Amino acid sequence: MRVFIIVLIKPIIQTVVIFLLMGHFLKRPFFKAFVLTAIFILYSVLVYGPRAECFELNEGIKSLGLSFSYNFNTVITFFEARTREQLECYEYFLTYWDVVFAALYAIMYAAWINALFSRRKLLWLTPVIFAVTFDWMENYFEIQMILDYLEGKMLSEGFIKLGSAVNSLKWICSWTIFIVLIVGTVTKLKNIRSKAGNGS
What confidence score (pLDDT) does residue 8 get? Predict the structure, then answer.
């Protein structure tokens, strides 16, 4: 009986200790950033990727949002290459799974910026805010195009150009985020070396 109790209690104690340690380390910005990055990667691999398989083809672009820009012919070709079921799946994907994806990468980038910068954090967060906003806006344009196409309506070339412009802005903001993170990493490393040099 005693052995049974020990076997039962031991993993519970270990779990409690792990959560207490996580609670301690989660106060540290870099640990938060690593945890959020891990969550983002797990979502991308286990949820986001598999949910996209229902509309992806072996040839051509896998998603309109993955290209820097697109035009009327690109959209028509993309839609005509897919069945109604695939387009409905794509519309559902954009409505739910891609929205969560954008939210997760925005939170992850915000965590890294918070960890890397000690001043002007709101300024450095600006491209992240715009990136996720443009991402969601571009989803709206794509969803509307899909619905119009499935209903047999004529797609508006001006509407497609606007959606493409928003998509391009999303990618520009994404590249800006990477530049910000590189600058933040280099600055952080310089500060660490400077403090180490002063300490010695």
Answer: 44
SS3 83: coil
Rg for the chain (alpha carbons), in Å?
23
CA dihedral 142, 58, 171, 70 (to 10 degrees): -50
Distance separating alpha carbons of residues 154 and 149, to the nearest angstrom: 7
Q: Tell me the CA distances in angstroms from 62 to 66, 129, 131, 174, one per residue in order.
A: 7, 25, 20, 19
Residues written for the chain: 200
Write out pLDDT tens, residues 164-198: 999 999 999 999 999 999 998 898 888 777 766 66
Please give the Cα distance from 109 to 125 (Å, whole number).
8
The string of pLDDT tens digits covering residues 57-72 is 888 888 999 899 999 9
| Alpha-carbon span 159 to 146, nearest angstrom | 12
